[in-house]
Structure formats: C-alpha cells, structure tokens
Amino acid sequence: MSEIIFSDTLATQNLRGKVVVLTGGAQGIGAATVTLLHQLGAHIFFGDLDTSKALALQSSLTSSPSPDSGTIHFLPLDVTSYSSQLSLFDLALSHHPQIDIAIQLVGVPEPPGNYFSPSHLNLTTVRDEPLPLKQNIDINLTSVILFSRIALAYLSSTPGSNKSIILTSSIAGITEAPGLFSYSSAKHGVIGLMRSLRRFTPSQFNGIRVNAICPWATDTQMLGGVKKNWEKENMPMNTPKDVAKMILQCAADETLNGKAVFVGGGRGFDTEEGIDRTLPEWMGKENAEVFLRGQEVLGLGGDWVDK
Ligand SMILES: NC(=O)c1ccc[n+]([C@@H]2O[C@H](COP(=O)([O-])OP(=O)(O)OC[C@H]3O[C@@H](n4cnc5c(N)ncnc54)[C@H](O)[C@@H]3O)[C@@H](O)[C@H]2O)c1
C-alpha cells in the first residue's frame, strides 16, 4: 500500500496563482480545502447550497489576508442543476483566462426514512416510491458525472498545464457499508467514474489528471449520530484539514493520476495500487491475463457508443 504524503513545498510551488473551481466549500472538508488554497495563493471560485456559511467563510478569509493570499469568490449553487454548475465555471472564466483545477466535494448522507429497515419495509410501505434515495444518487453521483464533464471542457479549452480534477468518494465507495444503501452505491460510482477517466483524460484531454479522495471518519457534521460512539471507542478520526491536504497533494503532484486516496487517522494511502497489483489473486491468474488482453482490445472505449 503506498502512502501519499502532503508536501507543503510542492503545494506552495504548484498551487500559487492557480484558478480553482470547487463545489461544496461552505463547511467541513470543503471549507478546510478553500482555506488552505486561499492561504497558498490560489484563486478560488466555490459554490454551495449554504449561502450563509459560505459568505461567513469568505468574509473571515478575506478580512485578514496575508501577503500570499489568493482571491476568493462564492456563487450560490445547487449541484443538481447543470446550468448552476456551468455558471460556477463561467464565473471563474469571467475573472481569469484559464481554469486549472476542479474539485468536487459536495456530498450528502444517507436520507433518513428507514427505507431498508426490516421493521418498516413490508408490502404496504414498499408501494411508496422512495424519492429521497433517488435524490441521494442525484447529488452524490449524477451531479459528479456532470461536474466531471463540465470540468473537462473548461480545463481542456483554456491555457495552462498541470491540470487536474479531484472527485470525492468515501471509504464507503471502496468497501461494504451496511446502512448506507444509496450513499455507498453512489460513492462506489464515483470510484468507477474516476477509473473510467484515468487513462482516458490524460491522452484525450491534454494531460488532465483525475483522482478520487476517499475519507474515512472525518470530524464534520456529516458524521451525525455515529460520532459519539466512534469517539467513545477511540477510533481514528481525520480533521477536515487532514483530508484537505490530500486533496491539495493530488492537485499539486503531477505524478498522481488514477488514485483512490483512502484518508484515515490523518494519513493518505492509494488503494488502487494494491487492487491492481493483486488482480491475479482475486480474479484468478488465467482470468486476469485474458481480462488484461481484453482491456487492450477495448482501448480507450471509443467503440462503446456510436460516433
Ligand atoms: N465527514 C466524513 O466522515 C466523510 C467521510 C467520507 C466521505 N466524505 C465526503 O466528503 C465530502 C465532504 O463532506 P463533509 O464531511 O465535509 O460534509 P459537510 O456536510 O460538512 O459539507 C458538505 C457541503 O455540501 C453542501 N451541499 C449539500 N448538498 C448540496 C447541493 N445539492 N448543492 C450544493 N452544495 C450542497 C453543504 O451545504 C455542505 O457545505 C462529501 O462528498 C462526503 O460524502 C465525508
């Protein structure tokens, strides 16, 4: 398992002056990421549903800037609206000739409602369509696919180098997560999206890199009711800043592409390396050989859809 270490020097060198579009920066991991980027001198354009928390963050950062601080703009945003996501990228382009980094951070927890509870699910309750489960997928996965598409267009069509997209999955996107039925499905989808893009975008979109961040328990409002027991059991907890540093490392380090960075207890590890390396073990040696040949035949997947 390869550890990913945050380098302050590299972040300072490669992120100062960069133009960053970020969704979900009003609080939690997003706010920590906005704060670090601002301190490093990046120009941030962030969107969030929570306007009051976003404006409070923006004013606290701009009220006491250091000489190295970058600029920061906020746009009220609902990621389920495609045009709303487009507007955020347009806002960045109205101030700068290029966009360098796109960071997707919005996520919402499993909706309450006992949709899979054996004590609630029966032949009567099953007749009500569970719309909150669909909305959860809409926010946690559909909007991420659309964000990636928009980001590729804006990053590849504007000048600059060392460009990248960072998507946010979860430990629940890598492993089983009973209780998180829609959330975990969506977060697995984010890893799938990153895997579909990681060979494709560097060659088809001017070297754009794509990585996914997969936090384990992180001290934000999202932990909700789980937090008390987690702390009581003395389980490892990330600070939002720990996760933000891994996001910055993915943005700064030109060698990082196609990683799924598990962040636990404050440290980051690429889980894809182990999955790829042990392919013959979990798929079977012969299956793995044929599968890899099949991947070569499929190439970058241009034949899946009609041209
Ligand atoms: N906190 C954890 O333990 C943890 C663990 C694994 C993954 N994650 C992931 O990390 C990311 C950030 O999580 P966090 O813990 O900082 O959560 P958070 O709740 O603190 O922040 C999420 C932000 O997204 C915004 N948001 C929600 N719905 C939106 C929408 N439709 N449009 C625009 N903005 C919207 C919220 O207003 C909020 O500011 C999420 O994708 C989450 O799934 C968090």
Automatic annotation (TrEMBL):
Q: Listed GO cellular component terms?
A: cytoplasm
Keyword annotations from UniProtKB, A to Z: NADP, Oxidoreductase
Single GO MF descriptor: oxidoreductase activity, acting on the CH-OH group of donors, NAD or NADP as acceptor
Which branch of life, at top level?
Answer: Eukaryota
Which Pfam family, giving just one, matches this sequence? adh_short
Report if keyword NADP is assigned: yes
PANTHER family cross-referenced by the UniProt entry = 15-HYDROXYPROSTAGLANDIN DEHYDROGENASE [NAD(+)]
Which protein family is named in the record? Belongs to the short-chain dehydrogenases/reductases (SDR) family.
What protein name does the entry list?
Answer: Uncharacterized protein
Q: Which organism is it from?
A: Podospora fimiseda
